[in-house]
Amino acid sequence: MATSFDLDLDGDTLHEECGVFGILGHPDASALTALGLHALQHRGQEAAGIVSFDGRQFHSERQLGLVGDHFTNPMTLARVPGNMAMGHVRYSTTGETILRNVQPLFAELEVGGIAIAHNGNLTNGLTLRRRLIAQGAICQSTSDTEVVLHLIARSQRASSSDRFVDALGAIEGAYAMVAMTRTKLIGARDPNGIRPLVLGELDGKPIFASETCALDIIGAKFIRDVENGEVVVCEIQADGTITVESYKPFPPRPERMCLFEYVYFARPDSMVAGRSVYAARKAMGYNLAREAPVEADVVVPVPDGGTPAAIGYAQASGIPFELGIIRNHYVGRTFIEPTQSIRAFGVKLKHSANRAEIEGKRVVLVDDSIVRGTTSVKIVQMIRDAGAREVHIRVASPMIFHSDYYGIDTPDPENLLANQHPDLASMCRFIGADSLQFLSIDGLYEAVGGEKRNPKAPQFTDHYFTGDYPTSLTDLNGRAKNEPKKISLLKEAG
Ligand SMILES: O=P(O)(O)OC[C@H]1O[C@H](OP(=O)(O)OP(=O)(O)O)[C@H](O)[C@@H]1O
Ligand SMILES: NC(=O)CC[C@H](N)C(=O)O
After folding, report:
1. Is the C-beta atom of 16 inside 6 A of ligand 2?
2. Is the C-beta atom of 16 inside 6 A of ligand 1?
3. Residues in the active site (predicted)?
4. What ipTM is given for this predicted complex?
């Protein structure tokens, strides 16, 4: 099927997220990888891929669509044999949703084959790409991640892991990355640790995964988080023994995990940086009830994202919690669908009012975030249509004013609801609610980390709320006004 994807960089807006998984030395490596990716499906629903190594050859299976669409088929798994495998679920942040951008990306290098899978987004990816192409590189994809392969290829170091470290040294932005060579599985996090990555173990075999829920699904043990700026190299020897070594090759920087992992992205049963995502979300709701109380009859979550915060709000306020909105579980996460029209359509498909719990009541609707406002506008109308007497919106995170360049699907600043209204009252009128309140930044910090935001050295990255970006934004700042925006000449089938 021919498509007419326009690889215009502006049209090619930022989205999020991705999930990565890798396991070394296990006879069921690709089946375990498929299960791990299935648990990470919420992080990326556009495409999935697995690369394996069978001791002789690498094998790659990459598909558009969900993990379950392809990797439940034994024939598909049989095409990725071997005792080492790694995989990726993608939500594109740079480069369209086309097969050649699906990860893991693989390349044949002087030092042998190497596969990489990346969660995050590079803020100097385009700058590096242009430089590499000018030097003669032949790019096969439009993904930012591909530059890492080119940098590895060009490194003068002897070992593949040293070359990988060299490549990481040149990139900026956010990455939780897994790489695989003939004998090594490598996990790395960017110096600020913006994206999560954990090290686990099953039957003594090391595993890297974006979230602990991917370990739980296969009964693997959580060992520890890969630290910010850390590179962990697991190597299988000829006799099958595995060594695990840790390196901190870059100048140290403070850890600044992305707060949105706690607000929205990570699965509530995951532990991110030692904190239960569920407990953090509940605490957000608790703090929200203290900061923004309201007289009401019922607390209703906007499912699924708003549910733990609504439980916290209900517990703190003493207002009964009810499932006043029912979510259709066969519709994906609207926030991470590619176009505004699909988002609007998705919200309608996704939620319906549970009239019996709403009619005649004063409703507090709790959601985790408001980005464009699409969800809130529709849901308030839906709750009113179901007979609610009053509708009060409480949002378990602050207003979003700034775009994200580390992978989150935030629109350009002018399309963020918070930038379209002069004040809260105007925003509330637009949404059609009786009242609207957001959690404060300190309320959010306290819910996640137990302490207020330290303005001199923020404990997390919170740039979407504050504009305080933890890395340089080389591509964004270096873009000349009349620069051609296309990054590929090829229009291709998806
Ligand atoms: O203001 P908006 O642009 O509408 O975006 C914000 C909404 O998007 C997310 O929900 P989503 O439907 O993605 O996922 P969920 O079911 O996981 O909560 C989030 O939980 C908000 O409800
Ligand atoms: N969401 C992600 O982490 C995506 C990784 C990478 N930037 C890509 O677009 O493929």
Report:
1. yes
2. no
3. 18 (nucleophile)
4. 0.94
Token pair 């990139």: residue: 171
pLDDT tens, position by position, 7-46: 333 333 334 579 999 999 999 999 999 999 999 999 999 9
Amino acid at 20: V
Residue owning the nearest CA to atom 3 of ligand 2:
119
Whether the model clears a pTM of 0.90, i.e. scores above it, the answer is yes
Tell me the residue type at 490.
Answer: L
Atom of ligand 1 nearest to the CA of 372: 3
Distance 408 CA to ligand 2 centre (A): 10
**pLDDT for the residue numbered 343:** 61
141 Cβ closer than 6 Å to some ligand 2 atom:
no
Cβ-contact 131, 166 below 8 angstroms: no
249 residue type, one letter: P
Q: Is 139 designated active site? A: no
Question: What is the helix (H) or strand (E) element at residue 77, kind and residue range?
Answer: helix 74-78
| Residue 337 Cβ < 6 Å to ligand 1 | no
Tell me the ligand closest to 13's alpha carbon: 2
pLDDT digit string, tens, across residues 385-419: 999 999 999 999 999 999 999 988 778 899 999 99
Q: Kindly list the structural domains of the chain, giving each domain's residue range(s) and its CATH number in brackets, ordered by start.
A: 19-256 (3.60.20.10), 275-467 (3.40.50.2020)
Between CA 475 and CA 484, with CA 479 as vertex, the angle to 5 degrees is 115
Residue for token pair 């959580």: 222
